[in-house]
Amino acid sequence: MRSLLNWIAHCWWLVFLISACTTTTNEVHQPVRWTVAVLDYENLNLLNTSHLDLIELLTAKTIETIKVSDRFDVVERQQLAKVLEELAIGSSIVASRQTRLKLGEITGARWMVFGSYQIIASQMRLDVRLVDVESGGVVNAVSQVTDNGSIDDWLTAVAEVTDRLFDIE
Fold it and tell me: Taking the model in full, what pTM does it have?
């Protein structure tokens, strides 16, 4: 009988140790949501050759596409502008790669999106890069050429480029 009691005591002790080593939580682990800052697209057209200023439109479409994916938090453009204004940083200084990455750090962004566009003859070229703020390394880069058709075609191309930009694992 004593050996049976010892055996039961050892089993209870073993169960206690195993349960102490494992933790259970009712929390569902959410994937990490990185924050992304999108800077205004850069117009690479020759002076006075663009019939329409598309910077705000293309940048807004990029932000909208990122938000719709619901995978990332996006730093609002107004917040970026406010930081630039408070730091009295002009557009010429923002051209510096280091300054742009510092801007990402200040806003809490993990990644920054830099884009440019150029209209040549009957085509528009889009180039977009996803850059890690901490390292300055390019996480992904995507280019696309689309017909110089309607604004809707351009916005569709921007959405496609943005989706491909964030198609990373």
Answer: 0.70
